[in-house]
Each structure stands twice: as C-alpha cells, then as structure tokens.
Amino acid sequence: MLKPRTLLIILIPGLILLLYLGRPVLTQLLTPPEEVTSLVEEVSNPLPIAPPTMQSPITIRPEIIGPGDEVTIVGGWPDQAEYRIYVANDSEKYLIGKAGFNGGMQWNGVVEKTMKTLDGEEVNLPQDKYRFVVETDSNHWEGGQINLVADSVPIPSGAEIRMTAAMQAQVGFDLLSLRLNKYKDKTIPVDLQLREYKINLNDINLISGEYSPLIFQIKYSVLPTLSNSDWNFIYPSPDGWVSPVVYVTVVADNGQFKIHRVSEYPPPQIQPNMFAPSVTPYFTNPGSIAIELMNVYFKHFTTDSIPNDQRLLSYKLNEIRIISQSAYGFVFYLNYSIQGTNEATSWCAGNGEIKANGLVENKVWFVRVTKEGTTYTMVGAGTSP
Prior knowledge:
By secondary structure, the chain is of the alpha+beta class. Helices cover 15% and strands 39% of the residues.
C-alpha cells in the first residue's frame, strides 16, 4: 500500500500537467481571428478526462433506416473523445462520419445504397444486414437496422402530366404507412414496436415541389407498445399516443414514387436573399474550411454595397468547433463577435451580448456546410444544431 507522501509525489506532477494542458481551452475566446486556424486541431480533439463510471446510451433515430434517410445519432459518453461512425455488416465496416464534443456526441448523416465514405471511397452496398457502429479508442456500441430497399408505391396514372393535391397527399400517406408498418413487426426490439398508428390526410402538407421531388411535412400519431419507449422523445398524451412531425422527401424513379429522405428537421434550403458562400480549398480539414467560409461570409457584409443596417465595420471569430462530419459535409459551432455600423442593426437579433457603438459579442451559430466534389457551401446558420 502506498504511503500518503508517495501518493502525493505521484499525483502532484499529474495535476500540474492537467492545468498546463487546460490553458489553450481557457484562452480560446480571447484569440484574434488570425489565430483561429491554430486552434482547429485543439478544438477537434478535446483534452482527455477520466472515463465515467457509467456510460449513457447512444440513441439512433430512426432505428429502422431506409436508403436516403437522414439519421441522427446522439449520445452521452462524456469522455471528450472523437467518435467514429461506421456502417457495418458481419465482415466489413465503412467509416461514414465523425463527431465529438464535450459531454457527448451528435451526428447527422444520410445513408445511401451507393455510399461515400470519409476516406473518399464510393461503396455500392450489396443487399445485406447492416447496422451502425460507434467507436472511440475505448468504447464500442452497435445499433440500428439498415434496410437498403427503398419504400415505394406506383406513380398514379396521369401524375406525370398533372399531379393533383389529392394525388400528392395520397403518395405521402401511402409511403409513410409503409414505413410505420415496419415498427409493428413483433421481431424488432419491444422498445421500438408500435401497437398502432394514425395518419390524417389533412395533416399531410406539401411544402415544396409539384411532381418530383416532393417534400412533405406530415404530422402523425403513434401508440408505442411500451409507455417509456424510444418513441417518447416528445411528451405523450394521457392515453399513450405520441404525435411527431416528420419531413419526407419523395422522388419519382422507374415508375415508382420512392422515399428519398426522412428527417425530423426541415430540409436545409438556401433562402433567395441569403448570402451562401462557397469555397474550393486545397486542404480538407473541416475546421480550416469553416474558417475560410466564415471569413468570406463576414467580409461580404463589410463592403459598401451592403445596406447600412446590415453592414459590418469589423468581425472576430472567437471559437470554431466541429460538431459532426460526413462525406456530404459537416456542421460546426461558431462563437463570434461583430461591430455594426450603428446601434440598431439586424445583427443585434438572435443572441450575444449587446455593447455600445454597435458591438455585439459572443454571438453563437450552428452552421451547416454541404460538400459537392471539392466545393464546400454554407447552406444554413441558426442558434441551434
């Protein structure tokens, strides 16, 4: 057994080292824009801490995934590690994403039958049983059922010439019904099973498109088999029914309407009046790409052509943290400060600390970036992921 003095001799150098390693994190908010690049690797690879005694579960929504589904993986392993996300079967696995931030992880991605990996490889997945694998250097977790056959229904006669609102609503109804029927299968885990579901045609709203693609917003109701199931991510009614809202993108293909993508969030769309910069960098580090995009974005608002209530005198990038990354793009957290041309500008809205002379400090955005080939485009920014 170690004596108290021996134990102190062992612990004190470790504590000093931890305090020394913690210094970059404490000084990030004071760093000027030209030094943000040097912080990217530190932000992307947070400092290790002691592993927790208990691990919070990883959750995948949806649990039964079709091709084109937008998938969200969230979890609470607070080891500040980099999380690697794979699509795997019993013999192979393909790296499709990375995520990591203090206190847990969140990753959003799309699974396709022809899939792009983070290594730049394009893989055509044969029909097989696939699942998600989430790994850190010390943890391993598996889940999800990936069905590579897309849900589809026949294209109604005459829809190619003129597709009525009734036809559109029926397509949305039929495709979502196919999807929800899978959750009534008694062979899947009981915490995912549904006893029943209800879809009202009046709750199927077309938000974009006339024939293909069609984007629906659909409110529906489900009655889970268990009262505390994974379906209860929103507050259930007293009789156990839960009423989520889902966004379904449908495309016409070879005589069929197929589900192309399902998401809990509206699809990112560039607004007509939104400045959406693109860059084609020679480097591939997402943190460096984020810095380049934001410099292009903010410099645009410092030009004389910008209206006075939107123009900036200066800006500062305080912190950039990559939230999730896939072969199709990435999402990052941004803390920034700006100096407007006067006290009342459009930049005062949202969040941040409003100071004198048009200064707003520590504004926060979550920025989504898409990748097409070697070009990266900013497609949206908001105060939540």
